Amino acid sequence: MKSMYSILFLFSLLLLNVSCEEEKQVFEITAQLDGFTENAVVTLIDGVSSKEIATTQIKNRAFVFSGYLSNTPTSLNILIKEDDHNTSITSLFIANEKINIQGDKKDFPDNLQILGSPHQALKTELAQKTTALNDSYDEEIQKMIAKRQANMWNDSLQTVYWGKNGVFETIDNEILAIKKEFIEENINTYYGLKVLASTKNNLSKAFITSQLQQLQPTYKETEYVHVIETFLNNEPLAKNDFLYDFEAENQEGQIVQFSDHFDSKKYVLLEFSSPHCGWCKKALPEIKKLANQKSTTLTIVTLNVENDKDDWIKTSKENKVNWTSLWNEKGRNSDAFTKYRVAGTPTYVLFNQEGKMIKKWTGYDENLIQDIEAHFTL
Fold first, then answer.
1. CA angle, corner 347, sides to 187 and 305, nearest 5?
2. Three-class SS string for the chain?
3. How far apart are alpha carbons 299 and 353 in whole angstroms?
4. Which of 177, 230, 257, 320 has its CA 20 to 30 A from that of 285?
5. What pTM, to 2 d.p., does this model score?
6. Rounded to 5 degrees, what are φ and ψ at 356?
7. At what angle do helices 190-199 and 223-233 cross, to 10 degrees?
């Protein structure tokens, strides 16, 4: 009798697992679009990591994507490429939902009709409120470029465009005011929290704190709130400030502290990198060269900012990374990402032998490595 009960129990568990699988929510994105050539290539891209998720083609004005998204709602990009000179892109913020996109090629990126997601509806609302200002910003950029090309640029124009209360600061402030109002109206939504988290560097701590105080219990335990609270509780590092320590896993599967990589002999360069970041790929050969040629005076530690562990291991092997590479399961939501005020990848922070910050660089250009070398060979 006991064995019969055991069999019935196992059978009930099996039915429960099957039922759970059947109820598992998935996303489906369908689209009916005019203005594109037949067989144009459509790519679905992770909006955070830039990793390609899936690819299809436009057939009879339509395409479909489906699958499962973890950690939702999340950002996605849809890129449609007809040829090397015709590419259209739009972005989504969705959960595992059924989404329908309708419109014309000329409606990209922000004037498409996207139905089926309350998260996307909020994203569209904010985009429509800021479209005119963003267009104005782009127009002013083009005017500035034209003046430079015509050799009309001078200190006075520099002040007009980039000075205090200049053209670009005025537009930025107007956009920020719209975002603040949006946050206040939608703080108890995932997209409202996302906007607060992404805009936090430009907001007062008093405003951020006041918004957190309005949160309903559903949203208090989200990663967005953790990131924002970490931001509030830790000041940005200044020159000669001691490092922010953090824990992560290395290539050998060991859990280590960032501070473990310091000794009394070498400088340490902390690199925040992403496997699918174009500028990180451009920087890779230079970082390899730096790791090989300066191994007696410099230790390089790369922190992968994406939360896909398999992707980190795979790309580290493919890129033949022979210096320390670290991974944290929280990715861009990790404390290290927030404490070091990483705005994008790649980001580099150089420390002296005692762990005091010398300088921070955001982005990559052809002079970056020479500048880094100059600071640790002094």
1. 60
2. CHHHHHHHHHHHHHHHHHHHHHHCCCEEEEEEEECCCCCCEEEEEECCCCCEEEEEECECCEEEEEECCCCCCEEEEEEEEEECCEEEEEEEEECCCEEEEEEEHHHCCCCCEEECCHHHHHHHHHHHHHHHHHHHHHHHHHHHHHHHHCCCCCHHHHHHHHCCCCHHHHHHHHHHHHHHHHHHHHCCCHHHHHHHHHHHHHCCHHHHHHHHCCCCHHHHCCHHHHHHHHHHHCCCCCCCCECCCCEEEECCCCEEEHHHHCCCCCEEEEEEECCCCHHHHHHHHHHHHHHHHCCCCEEEEEEECCCCHHHHHHHHHHCCCCCEEEECCCHHHCHHHHHCCCCCCCEEEEECCCCEEEEEEECCCCCHHHHHHHHHCC
3. 10
4. 257
5. 0.85
6. -95, 135
7. 30
Quick one: tokens of 286?
Answer: 């230079």
Identify the CA nearest to 228 among candidates 257, 201, 189: 201
Average pLDDT, the chain: 92
| Sheet of 98-104, strand order | 62-67, 27-34, 98-104, 113-115
Distance, CA of 166 to CA of 160 (rounded, Å) = 5
pLDDT digits (tens, 9 = 90+) for 144-187: 999 999 998 898 989 999 999 999 999 999 999 999 999 999 99
What number of residues does the chain have? 378
Q: Tell me: the pLDDT tens digits for 305-352?
A: 998 999 999 999 999 999 999 999 999 999 999 999 999 999 999 999
The count of C-alpha atoms lying within 13 angstroms of the C-alpha of 350, restricted to the half-sphere facing its C-beta, is: 19
User: Which one-letter amino acid corresponds to residue 361?
Assistant: W
Euclidean distance between CA atoms 356 and 176, whole angstroms:
34
- Of the candidates 55, 134, 130, 46, the residue with the CA atom closest to the CA atom of residue 92: 46
Is residue 349 within 8 A of residue 340, CB to CB? The reply is yes
Burial class (CB in 10 A: 0-12, 13-18, 19+), 216: exposed
- Tell me the mean pLDDT in the region 278-306: 93
pLDDT in tens, 229-250: 999 999 999 999 999 999 999 9
Distance CA 194, CA 330 (A): 16
d(CA 158, CA 319): 41
Q: Tell me how far apart the 2 most distant CA atoms of the chain are, in Å.
A: 94
